[in-house]
Structure formats: structure tokens, C-alpha cells
Specification:
The chain is mainly beta and about 190 residues long. The chain has a single domain, classed as Chalcone isomerase, CATH 3.50.70. The protein is about 10% helix and about 20% strand. The protein is built from three helices and nine strands; from the N terminus they run ββαβββαββββα. The strands form two sheets. Strands 3, 4, 5, 6, 7, 8 and 9 form a seven-stranded antiparallel β-sheet that branches. It has a two-stranded antiparallel ribbon with strand order 1-2. β4 and β5 form a beta hairpin. The radius of gyration is 15 Å and the shape is globular.
């Protein structure tokens, strides 16, 4: 995956997507696959990572990199759909009522102090039933080349319950954080 292109960050839900003929470039496919006992890469995970490789076609949401609230790094965010819905979600407040469409992918390039990408976090909105405990979002964490990182329990892809703690309080914002208003690109998607 080429994540060095600073175009957008997308939060991704987790179902398999086809790129042909779908608005925004992706179309959800039924995500009713059985939940594996251990974290292993499945077809949905591979498809989500392939979709993230299209980063150059995503919309960059922030105009400047902004500092993370969970570490000493900065972030650039990209979304594969029209960014207007995502822009209504603000990091500083909750309760936007925004629900992004199935197929939305959010990609966050995590940057070190020199601006180099150290890892990429992904979210993709899947079809209803994928993971109802967290709005049917698929998660992934990769290196800058798109290789899933392994945390000892397997590749960091899929229904990552370790993501729930931070995202559950954002239920009124489709479990998303958005970009701080002062870092957002002005106007348009």
C-alpha cells in the first residue's frame, strides 16, 4: 500500500467491497461471514487493505496535520466518500447525529515528529450485522507499505475490540472522532 500520498484519511467499516460501479468507488458485499476464533486475515481484511491502496482517490479532510490526543504523534485523515458528512463530526464535541454510509473508509496516516508516516489506521463501515457492538466498523492497522501489524494476537485487522474503548463513547457520531475544526480544510468535501 502506498500511504505516502497525503491525500486523505478514511475510517473504514468492515465488509468485503467491490470497486466496480459503486458511488465513491466501493460497494459493500454481504459481511455475514462467521467470526473466526483467532485473528487471521480473511477476504474482507484483504479487500479493505486493497481499497486503502486507492488512497490517492480519497478526499483529504484536514488542511494541516494535527496532534493526536492519544499519543505524541500527528495525523492526516482521508475519506473515500464525499467528505461532507464526515466533516460534520467534530473532535471537540459529540452528538453530531451523523451516520456515514456503508462503504465509507477512513484512513489515518500516523506521523512522527519529522512528518514521516509510521503506521496507518483504517476504519471501514460494513453492512448491518458485521459488528453491531460498534456500528459495524472494520478496523485495521498497517505499516506504511500496507502490511498489517501483528500485536501478538495476530494481524491487527477486523473486529478489533481493543478499539472499542476509545470509539464507544462516540456512538452519537457513528463512533468517529472527526478532525478538529481548526485543522479542517475549508469548504467543499
Amino acid at each position: 500500500m502506498r500511504c505516502t500520498v497525503v491525500v486523505l484519511v478514511a475510517l473504514v467499516g468492515c465488509s468485503e467491497f467491490e470497486t466496480a460501479g459503486a458511488p465513491g468507488g466501493v460497494q459493500p458485499v454481504d459481511a455475514a461471514a462467521p467470526v473466526p476464533d483467532a485473528r487471521v486475515m480473511d477476504a474482507i481484511d484483504r479487500q479493505m487493505i486493497r481499497e486503502a491502496e486507492r488512497l490517492g482517490t480519497f478526499t483529504r479532510v484536514n488542511r494541516i496535520s494535527y496532534p493526536s490526543t492519544v499519543g505524541t504523534f500527528s495525523i492526516d485523515v482521508f475519506v473515500n466518500q464525499d467528505g461532507r458528512s464526515y466533516r460534520r463530526i467534530h473532535h471537540e464535541t459529540t452528538g453530531s447525529g451523523v451516520v456515514v454510509p456503508v462503504g465509507t473508509m477512513v484512513v489515518r496516516n500516523v506521523l512522527d515528529a519529522q512528518g514521516a508516516i509510521t503506521k496507518v489506521t483504517l476504519m471501514a463501515k460494513q453492512t448491518a450485522g458485521y459488528d453491531p457492538t460498534l456500528g459495524d466498523w472494520w478496523f485495521g492497522v498497517t505499516d506504511p507499505a500496507g502490511n498489517p501489524l501483528d500485536d501478538g494476537a495476530g494481524p491487527q485487522v477486523g473486529r478489533l475490540t481493543e478499539c472499542h474503548g476509545c470509539h464507544l463513547p462516540r456512538a452519537q457520531d457513528d463512533f468517529l472522532f472527526g478532525v478538529p475544526q481548526d485543522a479542517q480544510r475549508p469548504g467543499g468535501p
